[in-house]
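Q: What does the assembled structure look like for these inputs?
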Amino acid sequence: MPNNNEDTTQEVTPGQAQLDSSITQKINYLQTLQSALHDHDDRQIYELIDKTRYEREVKKSRSTTKTQELADLVADDHEQLSHYLSEKLIDYLGQTYPFFYYDEVKDGEFDIYFGNWWDRRKFGKLDVLNVAFKFDETEYNKLKRAFELDALNQRYNTENIADITANSAELQKLIEGQDERDHEKEKLRQQLKEVSQKSTLPWDSGKVKEERQGIVDQLSKLADDDEEAINANKKIKENDEKILSLSKEDTILTYEKQSIQQKFEDFSHFESHNQSLYTDYLTNLIGKGQVKADD
Amino acid sequence: MINENDPSTLSTSGRLLSYNNAVKEGLKTGQQFTELMDQLINTKDPKKLVEAAQTLSVFELDSDYVTFPHQYNNADYYLIFMSRLLELHDQGEAITLESHEDDQHLTQQIAALGDLGVFAFVGANDSNGGVYYQDRVTNETLFYLNLSRRMMRFNSSAITKLFVETYADKIEKDQLLTATDLLIAFGQALKTDFGFDVDFNLLDTNNNEFYEFATSNLGSEVVDKLFVAAAQENYMLKHDKDGAVLELAPDLTLKIASHNANGGAAWGLYVTDKDQSVSWFKVLLEYPFLRKWYLENIGDLQIRSDSLVF
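A:
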């Protein structure tokens, strides 16, 4: 009998054994992932899709298990995975960051909006799989600057608005000075006429010429001012539009700043919270898992 | 042949008879007129009141043989009608009707407005008997009224000019509200007593009233202006699926929307409060920053009135 067996059973080569183990490992991986999905065990899923980070940042262990290849098995499922994981994550974020709103622009991809006020800013994206905010750099830096300026009792566009306002005031003066300029021009033209009519004695001609040039120069300066005054209303209107958009930006930044201050007191706390988001969230999931297990 | 219309064919007694008949007819018309006046002035029945007003508004008192030197204008009967209808609704005290004997016409004053505003009806020249209720001082027409078509339309532009701009710094807000409440009461009476179709426009307090802006394409900078102005007064203009929302008080919200109540594309406002007692007009009187915003952008924001009559 043993002989018969020897005939039918091939000997397992080391290569086959390795292959077998590798497949088993993959099957195990996928099965674990699947049951985690069935059990809504998001913590387990996060651990499976990035074991290295999980070990390092949650378990605080230095072991560097090579598991990336396994995680690659579901690389083409990331959109759906992200969509699935977003639900609990966004719930959690709602408590710490009540001022962020998310718009799923396509499966698993989320835009972040800051606030619920008029024309709130698109502030970046939410990276669900990595539990991280990817803030729009320009918008983020504006907010950061707004916090810095707050210490000086200034708003982001205070200086800018002051400059434009001053410019408008100049332009307004120019418009209001029209009558005075007209009067002045009339006087100068009269003078010019008088100078021209003066009998020009040879020895006076240089002086007369000079006098005449002086009047012409003044007239041309006034003509320039007139020209500018004609366009002034349009410019003032443009300035008003600029001021409006800058004031709006200041208002938005103020709302953003207040939102952060209410929750984090200052910007640095906000930043440090963002940095430890992954650890905080997974720790929170572990806590919830324990509560569940205790039930 | 005797032709009654051709006096030359008649004998003297025939002519006298014909003359007498014509005078009788004229007197009968006059008699009819005084009966209608009695009815207009005395009746307690709203149906009879509107009937008299309607007949008098097109009544021709003069005939070839009988003319009356002292006559009111046809539109004046609307004023009597308005005063009487308000009287039947216990608001008679709120207006005074004045008769100007020298040139025989009537005007009306709204008690709450004091000396501001002298009102009268003027024909709308729209060939179907419509009249405008007009302030003689500014010539602003507050509403259009048509008894035969049973309709009334308020004019948002005139209400804004008179009550929000011209009168606002001359009398107390409460007085302004009393005055507009009176006009609303008149419209309500027309609605409930005679089934009129009334557009209260910006005076309407219903939550589902859509106050439609003049512009059909509201520029975002207009909303930006409100956003900034509201923030300065510590109100936050909030993002909304269909536009923007401003919570003015725990139970009072103003919504800027890009759809009317039937879902059609249009820009306008909704004012929502639990008791449905607040109109856009009241909001304008109550909140200076909204009034400023509305008036500064009136070209875009003017609430539309019925374009058939305004």
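The longest helix of chain B spans residues 12-42.
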